[in-house]
TrEMBL record:
CDD domains: OYE_YqiM_FMN
Name of the protein: NADPH dehydrogenase
Organism of provenance: Deinococcus carri
Any coiled-coil regions, as ranges: none
This protein's UniProt keywords: Flavoprotein, FMN, NADP, Oxidoreductase
This protein's encoding gene: namA
Lineage of the organism: Bacteria, Thermotogati, Deinococcota, Deinococci, Deinococcales
Amino acid sequence: MTQPAASTPSTDATPTPLLFTPLKLQSLTLPNRVVVSPMCMYSAQNGLANDFHLTHLGQFALGGAGLIFTEATAVSPEGRISPDDLGLWNDDQLVPLGHITDFVHRYGGRIGVQLAHAGRKASTYSPWKGRGAVPVEAGGWQVLGPSDTAYNASFPTPSAMTLEDIRRVTADFAAAARRALMAGFDAAEIHAAHGYLLHQFLSPLANTRTDEYGGSFENRVRFLLEVVRAVRAAWPMHLPLFVRVSATDWAQGGWDLDQTAQLASLLRYEAVDVLDVSSGGLTPLQHIDVEPLYQVPFAARIKQEVPDLHVMTVGLIETPAQAEQVLREGAADLIALGRPFLRDPHWVQRAAHEFGVQLPLPDVYARAGW
């Protein structure tokens, strides 16, 4: 099989686009800067990956993506967004995920796992099955949150987490990281964005606690920092650790970019390698002005203020030219794509063709003549 290597331009006179410049993260070298963003597929049973996940994630390795992330993978049963989410809370879930990582590696790819807990946004229906809370009799469960306030009227009402709950969930993240290593993943990401549990603790719109985990900025970031430390202790230092954050709640009085920059300056001292900068998802009151590259300025701010922390950006980056522009401007180090990869799993091959770059591909695809 063709093994990954640094991409080369088609002529000596043409410099290699930054999009196809390798990036070394600890001992892991990515052959290009294009990352498959975590995307929930709602296709698992009891947290177990199946043939769908093998086909879905495997196609991106065949297409030349620099790094592939799984969907949000729950660290405990109550941490699932829906009953149909992937999980890493027991050893039975290792083998099918290991089958996927073996396939990706066989075809020269790299793959990471996103570790997640949905908090008050858990026990909800998959998008095409319904809306709002899944009742217990239909497979739902009691959800947790920093406080006892629901996301909205149709979502479950959470139980405010006790200190024991916080310690248990922290341990769940660490245990899931250990399983991820055994399953053969190359990178791990802690999901602290999009209104899920760790983001809920960060935002004063969801976190109304009066103990050491609520109130001040230092208290609201405490849980995330404890999870990062626990995961880093379980996840080897020679493999990269990502943290995904929402840079802003897009709502008055919520988590914002200034606090994100302050958090980023703390995370660089916790052996975090990449900050994955997204936004929103915390409150139904959010107001987002969506346009191409609309989240790139958030990543650029972090990149400017914390230059020794790698930054990944995501959100309505559609074309290779847009992705290259972001990198050329120094706004980010990595480009994460979601919907573009759903439309075209060979997006990276198409980008290489547009830039005149010779992309290393498995032998069975090299005949395409890109």
